[in-house]
Design brief:
Helix content: under 10%
Strand content: 35-45%
Shape: elongated
Largest sheet: 7 strands, antiparallel
Number of helices: 4
Number of strands: 43
Radius of gyration: 25 Å
Distance between the termini: 40 Å
């Protein structure tokens, strides 16, 4: 198998070691998390911290799979920050109409509201837009309902209340002319200046076997939910104004709107598409009007953020910083061939956000969570801040867990733009310029381990076959970095049997190689998720316009890539090699960015 054939299969390698994996030692591995209770199917586990200090988690569950009858909403309580949970508490029973996609809101006086999609008319099938003519999935239609609890989630109101929603064009043009409304929401409501908002998606065309083939992003706002105790008197407004919700620049899908508030009261929303990117929008008037549809970028005028049709969540923390959850692949390249835009939700990536002049600027990303099996989906997170500690919940649809996040990972993201520190932790070799050195021993590629090469380089040309570093023995075992025929740098690894290779991004977008300029390059081999990343001039390669991924997987069969006893630096190069470092651990993206600025 040639290099290109190999790397193209990397994102979907089979879980060779997953069946016999020992308990996780890497906090990013989801298998080390604490289980959240469920019946069978489990989705969207969202947490609020009640006034007694406990965690109240609400979620959608059922004994079958997603969309089957008896799907309903439940609650569970933890008093040890998600380590253990109470038995499930019905908010809506399994023997009633479908109740799904529950979102919790904690009021200042302790009441907890939950908002959810409720199949009030108990429809058993709906007319679809393609053959066969009827779809049996009825969990994304009906009425927006809500209930409340005044005892921290132990019991829930017998009364069920409904939010009236005016029909919009997407409703009137559905196959029921708006008499049946199709919609669902994700995430949790946000609170700012005494008002509450939550995002959701209206569905226009419904395809079989249950695909939402046309959608728009909308919001519900309440200005009096915190001041009125009589739930029947709560007032709700459907936003944005007018007949259209938030839309994608190209495709028909714009769903799962998720939002935060900025310091000046502006709102920032993200939502997913099928275009290979997530979208972003700002509102400066409380959600009535929004900026024109555009793909999300790392900053105003910056490069687009790649993302499939998967949960794309944004969170604001008590320090005023933000976090963005996404999957870091997609882009225009995916439209050159058939693309299942629901797949590849592993690993989960995050970027840290800071507000500047009314806009959020996003950092280069880090891996937050992964599973040993690349086919496992990790989605619908909730971020919890409790006593100075950070946690995240997630679901794979049949399993849901809670994980504590290493706070230094988040702090590194939030401080990335100002980081000018040269990382010395794990540094096992430092050199300057070409030469031969004793090769330090690289760690075995077992969970949580890895290594990194970090260097400055200036190339006069990008012709293939140049060797930046070579620590291979006569059998080919070891590691090397060379130039390719795609004007990229390639890392090659071999243990004498198993091999792996991944190159930096081709093309001319930010983060690619250029001629005649000093550039800072870091290549990271992360043996937790078994992923190779390239960071060029502080930009983590994302594939650009040429490929779906800028990062690549390597097989778990590859473990020991130590080869020659000597490391040759720049034995064949048309240019100059500057500061060079070897780390006996995988670096974080934020550390690589800090190394860039420290050497500037």
């Amino acid at each position: 198998m040639n290099r290109r054939q190999f790397v193209q299969t990397l994102p979907m390698l089979p879980p060779l070691a997953a069946q016999t994996a020992s308990p996780s030692t890497d906090p990013r591995n989801i298998r080390g998390g604490s289980l959240i209770p469920k019946e069978g199917y489990v989705d969207q586990p969202y947490v609020v911290i009640t006034r007694d200090g406990a965690w109240l988690c609400v979620l959608t569950t059922g004994r079958g799979v997603e969309g089957e009858p008896a799907q309903h909403i439940v609650a569970s309580i933890s008093r040890d920050k998600g380590a253990t949970w109470s038995p499930l508490i019905d908010i809506e029973p399994a023997n009633g109409p479908e109740a799904s996609w529950v979102m919790p809101l904690l009021t200042p006086y302790g009441r907890v509201y939950v908002f959810y999609t409720y199949n009030k008319d108990n429809l058993r099938s709906v007319e679809g837009c393609n053959s066969p003519a009827f779809a049996k999935r009825v969990d994304t239609l009906g009425y927006y309902a809500f209930k409340y609890s005044d005892d921290n989630g132990r019991t829930w109101s017998k009364e069920r209340y409904y939010i009236s929603m005016r029909p919009m064009r997407i409703d009137r043009e559905n196959l029921y002319a708006g008499k049946v409304l199709f919609f669902w929401g994700v995430g949790k409501p946000i609170v700012d200046r005494g008002k509450m908002w939550f995002g959701f998606a209206k569905v226009g065309k419904w395809g079989n076997p249950g695909g939402m083939v046309e959608s728009q992003g909308c919001f519900i706002r309440s200005d009096n939910i915190f001041t009125v105790r009589d739930s029947s008197k709560i007032e709700f407004t459907l936003l944005p104004d007018g007949d259209e919700g938030l839309r994608a620049p190209k495709g028909p899908v714009s769903d799962e709107a998720n939002l935060v508030a900025l310091s000046d009261g502006s709102l920032y929303a993200t939502y997913r598409t099928i275009d290979g990117y997530n979208c972003q929008a700002y509102s400066r008037d409380g959600g009535h009007k929004w900026t024109p549809s555009e793909y999300a970028t790392y900053g105003p005028g910056g490069r687009r953020i790649k993302h499939p049709r998967a949960a794309n969540f944004v969170k604001k923390f008590s320090n005023g910083k933000f976090l963005l959850w996404y999957h870091n692949h997609g882009g225009e390249a995916v439209h050159a061939a058939s693309w299942n835009y629901y797949l590849n939700r592993n690993p989960a990536w995050i970027s840290g956000g800071a507000e500047k002049n009314g806009y959020i600027h996003w950092s280069e990303p880090e891996i937050l969570l992964y599973d040993d099996n690349p086919a496992t989906g990790i989605s619908y997170p909730d971020f919890i801040e409790d006593g100075g500690r950070y946690f995240v919940t997630e679901t794979q649809k049949s399993i849901a867990r809670v994980h504590e996040i290493d706070r230094t990972l988040l702090e590194g993201l939030w401080a990335q733009s100002d980081n000018r520190t040269l990382t010395r932790k794990g540094l096992i070799l430092e050199a300057n310029g070409p030469g031969e050195h004793d090769m330090p021993r690289l760690p075995l590629l077992t969970e949580g381990a890895g290594f990194a090469f970090d260097f400055r380089i200036r190339l006069r040309e990008l012709s293939p076959g140049q060797t930046i570093l070579d620590a291979r023995d006569s059998s080919g075992r070891g590691v090397a970095v060379t130039t390719t025929d795609r004007f990229t740098l390639q890392l090659s690894m071999s243990d004498g049997s198993a091999k792996a290779a991944w190159d930096s991004d081709p093309g001319t977008h930010p983060g690619t190689l250029r001629i005649g300029e000093w550039q800072h390059v870091t290549v990271i081999v992360d043996a937790g998720p078994r992923i190779i990343t390239w960071i060029v001039n502080g930009v983590l390669n994302d594939g650009g316009a040429v490929r779906e991924y800028g990062w690549g997987r390597f097989s778990p069969a590859l473990r020991d890539v130590n080869g020659a006893s000597k490391l040759k630096l720049a034995p064949v190069i048309f240019g100059q090699l500057g500061d060079f470092r070897v780390y006996g651990r995988h670096l974080r993206t934020s550390e690589a960015v800090g190394n860039l600025r420290a050497s500037a």
